[in-house]
Design a protein that fits this description.
The chain is about 30% helix and about 25% strand. It has about 270 residues and is α/β, with parallel strands linked by helices. It has a single domain (about 1-225), classed as Rossmann fold (3-Layer(aba) Sandwich). The strands form 2 sheets. It has a 9-stranded mixed sheet with strand order 9-8-7-10-6-1-4-5-11, sandwiched between helices. Helix 3 packs across helix 4. The chain is globular. The relative contact order is 0.17.
Length: about 270
């Protein structure tokens, strides 16, 4: 039994966001972090390892520097890492990215009892599409927006968050689930984990390693395999500073009402 965790290195959007003329993010000029929802997916896999002793494999598609992120996850407790990286994969949208990741997971092999964990969505795209698309291309069951997960023999019982409540779903394995932040609190790296991270195996899969998989070819990956087109992009103007009104007397209320009326809010 193994848990495969799909992770992504994303720009740190808490700072200034740089955009190229073609509408894509200028990732080279921005610091990167591990996608927050993916950390919840990793923690869910590590908790499954704590309970069952399964192997945890983290996998990402990205440039060579993403190896540093994978090493951190090995230090947190993952057993193996896979870096999917090649120039042929550049420019992939969610459709092409899911093709590539599905091919890599297919190469790793999925068996009864295996679970693929993904974060709900990435903070750079916010599409929440890659996880479900991977499941569709691997032809395995999927449960999205998972807030709780329990393994019962060879089946997974998930508590799925809805807009107005929760839904309990039971599914057979192998399956894919996408995790939300309410699922858990990710652990920190340990000193022992940091010490052992560089002795754990890391596999690099390029286009040549995956081209024999039936899920990808030149026409389904990269920019040419991406049906998504950016028509226009812009940086939204910065919002002005707020106005603070002190006091709770009649005068302050009158001033507030006048300001709201002037903006046609009331």
């Amino acid at each position: 039994m193994k848990a495969i965790v799909c992770v992504k290195q994303v720009p740190d959007t808490s700072g200034k966001v740089a955009v190229n003329p073609d509408g894509t993010l200028n990732r080279a000029s921005m610091p990167t972090i591990s996608n927050p929802d993916d950390m919840n997916a990793l923690e869910a896999a590590l908790q499954l390892k704590d309970d069952t002793g399964c192997k945890v494999v983290v996998i990402t598609m990205g440039p060579p520097p993403a190896e540093g992120m994978l090493r951190e996850m090995l230090a947190m407790g993952a057993d193996e890492a896979v870096l999917v990286s090649a120039r042929e994969f550049g420019g992939s949208d969610t459709f092409a990215t899911s093709q590539i990741l599905a091919a890599a997971i297919h190469k790793l092999g999925l068996e009864k009892g295996d679970v693929v964990f993904c974060g709900r969505q990435a903070i750079d795209g916010d599409t929440a599409q890659v996880g479900p698309q991977i499941a569709e291309k691997l032809d395995i069951p999927q449960v999205s927006y998972v807030a709780d997960v329990v393994l019962e023999k060879d089946r997974i019982v998930c508590r799925r968050m809805l807009e107005d409540g929760y839904m309990t779903i039971e599914t057979e394995t192998p399956c894919l689930i996408t995790c939300i932040k309410e699922l858990n609190l990710p652990r920190y790296m340990s000193m022992r984990g940091i010490y052992s991270a560089y002795s754990k195996p890391m596999q690099i899969m390029d286009f040549n390693a995956l081209k024999d998989e039936t899920l990808i070819d030149r026409e389904t990956i990269g920019l040419q395999g991406s049906p998504t087109n950016i028509l226009t992009s812009f940086t939204p103007p910065q919002k002005g500073g707020g106005m603070m009104l002190e006091g709770a007397d009649r005068s302050a209320c009158k001033t507030l009402a006048g300001l709201l009326a002037g903006k046609h809010i009331i």
